[in-house]
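User: Fold this; tokens only.

Assistant: Input:
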Amino acid sequence: MPDVPAAPRVLVSAGERGPADSSRHPYNPASEIHGWTVSRDAGLNRIAVNLAWLPPGKESSAFHVHHREEEWLYVLSGNGTAEVDDREVAVGPGDFLGYPPGTAHHLRNTGKEDLHFLEGGEIFTDVEVADFPRLGRRMVRTGARIAIYPLSAEIPFWSDRAPEMPPELMGSAPRKDPPRVVVKATERPEPRKYNHPQNPGAEAHLTHLSRSSGLTRVAVVLARVPAGRDAFVKHAHVRDEEWMYVLSGRGQVEIGDAHHEIGPGDFLGFPAGTPHDTRALPGEDLVSLQGGDAWNRGSVDVIDLPDHRMRRIIVGTRSVMVFPLDANVERKG
């Protein structure tokens, strides 16, 4: 009989992570980072989330800039200094940094204790280009192959007087306003209360962090569910991946037909097609950092509500339609 692939782990409990991995960036002797790729352990493939820490005096990698990927970082504890393009910013617990493509960044632990944080971003398996401006190098990854070029080896293509691409080849004007990037804990936008229309017992207070920092394809939200309330309704995204990291409180997560209690430090990754919902247990609000694929004007999302026999279709950010699952009159393939 052929092997049956194992179901995604989904829940990575704080006490079941196993030994942490350790790494150093080859371009930076001060680099030393420890942690876990919790999203991979939970079965996610397109979105990366790492739980990591830097010892005092150590740095994350090397000052770099991605030209395609969106990345982000949320400080859990400790203090450090983040380099963002040509400025330095002191960061501490609750601060969020979103790095749109083209934003150079780096992180150092300048405190006396370990600097703990969550970090994540997109996973592109085909092509990515990243620069190391201070080292004068460009990395080009195509699939599993990596090529490193010294920027000094560049040869003229258009002309010495016109290093940029001809404007007639560019389809849109460059962005005028730089992204905000840093969202300090004291400067977060006000949370928005959301009650799911299919669940009168649902209540979630959502603070959008990624949107405030300039990210458009990756969503990161600070969520608070009052004690005894549901977060949303049991649902499954047909394409999108989602994740959740518990900051405080205790709750119960429903994954398919199974129920698990969750608490601080637990991570949940919901691969596409995984029915799930969460609930705050009585006595304390459930606070978490959660995210996944962001809705934007170019996105399409299909969400099934299995207990309600409904399918919700979202095209862009405004076109929302809901159909009964049994209303399908034509099925092909």
